[in-house]
Amino acid sequence: MRKAIVAGNWKMNKTLDEAIALARSLRDLLDAVHHVDMVVCPPYPTLSGVSEILKGSPIGVGAQNMHWESQGAYTGEVSAKMLLTAGCQYVILGHSERRLHFGETDDGVRKKVVAALKSGLVPIICVGERLDEREAGRTEQVVAKQLRGAVGGLSAEELLRGIIAYEPVWAIGTGRAATPEMANEVHTFLRRLLRELHGEGVASAVRIQYGGSVTEENAASLLRQSDIDGALVGGASLKAESFAAIVRAGSEHTGG
Ligand code: 13P
Q: Quick check: is 97 catalytic?
């Protein structure tokens, strides 16, 4: 059975003091929760501070992006090694906000995935369709292109170390989550694609998170679906109690 993984993407929220306070609350609330992997992804300047607080706790730390090069003249960018030394174990890659506002392409995401895996970071690889694409009946085509683009050239062993996140763009920050059935349908499709690329062993082991307006109210019903193995949470991860409630729903996950 796949173990659920619940990650909080704090996006561009929380100053250092606020981030440390939130990390402390999460550590206290989640210390005794088992059977679920949990991760927080704070902004870069707070990564070291948050990692320090969460050291020895069951909560992992991730970044929200990185560059594929290891160093050099790339003003404003950070490398995998910098993230590792700031205490990260995970990195979100290809988030739709990066694709939309910062021009990230499938090829760029692929290079980042390769660099993350090489460094030992676990990539959380995001895919998801826009509303116009869903309405045009192109959801599967769009997510297939993104997934193939990001993981097409990886070995089975590499792919097994990554996590996929399905985040329909129209569900992000809108309060309009996909219904559990609607989300599961796409997760099942993505798993079928993984099977085509790398066979049953990989397809049945790789975890696929759902993201897009996940709340403590809808988390359990989403996580009960057969192919949904966790959540990537934005807004609701900014409050300790609501994120903790979603993590607890993950610890009761029985799918997969
Ligand atoms: P919301 O949970 O705020 O919709 O954001 C989802 C998301 O983008 C997580 O990466």
A: no
Closest CA to 245 of 25, 82, 98, 67: 25
Query: How many domains does the chain divide into?
Result: 1
Query: Which residue is associated with the tokens 């250092």?
Result: 16
Pocket flag, ligand 1, residue 246 (CB < 6 Å): no
Average pLDDT over all residues of the chain:
97
Mean of pLDDT values over 92-115: 97
Which ligand 1 atom lies nearest to the CA of residue 235? 3
CB of 244 closer than 6 angstroms to any ligand 1 atom: no
State both tokens at 99: 């694709």
Cα–Cα distance measured from residue 167 to residue 144, given in angstroms and rounded to the nearest whole number: 13
**177 in a domain, yes or no?**
yes
To the query of whether residue 167 is one of the catalytic residues in this protein, the response is yes
Q: Please report which confidence band the pLDDT of residue 179 belongs to, taking 50, 70 and 90 as the band edges.
A: very high
φ, ψ dihedrals at 15, nearest 5°: -75, 175
Domain contains 120: yes
Q: Is residue 256 part of a domain?
A: no
- pLDDT tens digits, one per residue of 217-242: 999 999 999 999 999 999 999 999 99
Which residue has its alpha carbon closest to ligand 1 atom 7? 234
pLDDT of residue 112: 98
Task: Give me the domain span that covers residue 240.
Answer: 4-251
Contact 249, 219 (CB under 8 A): yes
Catalytic-labelled residue, pool 95, 187, 198, 253? 95
Whether residue 172 has its Cβ less than 6 Å from ligand 1? yes
pLDDT digits (tens, 9 = 90+) for 59-90: 999 999 999 999 999 999 999 999 999 999 99
- Ligand 1 contact, 213 CB (< 6 A): yes
Task: Report yes or no on 107 lying in a domain.
Answer: yes
Residue 187 is part of a domain; what is its CATH number? 3.20.20.70
Q: What are the backbone angles phi and psi of residue 133, rounded to the nearest 5°? A: -70, -40
